[in-house]
Amino acid sequence: MDHSQEIKAFATSLGFDLVKITRADTLSDAGLYYEEWLKKGLAADMEYLKKDSSKRYTPEKILPGSKSIIVLGLNYYKKEHEFREPFRIAKYAQGRDYHKVISAKLKKIGKYVEEISDTNPLSKSYVDFGPVMERAYAQKASLGFIGKNACIITREYGSYIFLAEILTTLELTPDKSTKWKGACGTCTRCIDICPTRAIKPDKTIDSNLCISYLTIENRGDIPLALRPKIGNWLFGCDLCQDICPHNVRAQPTKVQDFQSIPIGAQNISLSQILSIETDDEFTQIFAGTPIMRAKRRGLIRNACVVAGNLGLKELVPQLQKLTQSDDPMIAEHAAWAIQQMT
Ligand code: SF4
Ligand code: SF4
Fold it and tell me: Is this model's pTM higher than 0.85 or not?
């Protein structure tokens, strides 16, 4: 008996905006592309992307006997910027941590899948950091197409969606593959707007240059030549999505958790960020938000770069104090920021 429609209906009832199914095939072409991308060093120092890389495109290695992948999309778009300061934070981070929100829903769907059939199917679910090439499987499932900016772009919501996937040993009916008319075509808007030239013409992103990587995953210095190009991005960057013509279809998220940032981080100023002295203080402010990922020293490093780029002279006394920090990374970025203003 095919349970595809019941599973889709259940996932939709939990708030997922898009639910598609594809077969749990090995993606050889996407795998080759991914291995090449790693070999060229374009994953920067994100070691988790390199570990067991073949798992990402070989579902059998993640869940032996897997037959189907349920690919889920959750729209997170919000128009309003929550922060009163002149810095910017990527839209996906302007709400509660999506891992927490989505994991809770995935658990319920996983349980539903395992109990729906008397064949005792197994399931494994992932959101974002899991070992699955989620955009490639989302494209295979016809949830959207991968744009030149490397985002999955959906017909219904554009690219501001979180992806999640459930691998299962249950045989389900895959969605028919879609021909994406008018996908990227000759458009190069995202390539042209990227301040650091991180998007290559072959849809490859060089993470070493991408502001999202530099301000979130990067644990070290931001290269000097790239600092001015970061402008006022404090955490992440949305430029290549905001410019995409497919995002005219973006519509406000229905998920309350994504509509506003948790209370502690609301209305925080750059000055307050520069004053955070301990990891505990950082956690008190940002707990439950994706901003935790940058950690205290990463966020202060970013705040120094933004202050330097915006020439915020009123922050010089705080920056001067930070030049005495025990952390050489913070001290150096603070000194750089002051230099930009003199
Ligand atoms: S996120 Fe920003 S820096 Fe990264 S590729 Fe897109 S426009 Fe470029
Ligand atoms: S901006 Fe243009 S090239 Fe870039 S992803 Fe969107 S449609 Fe494709």
Answer: yes
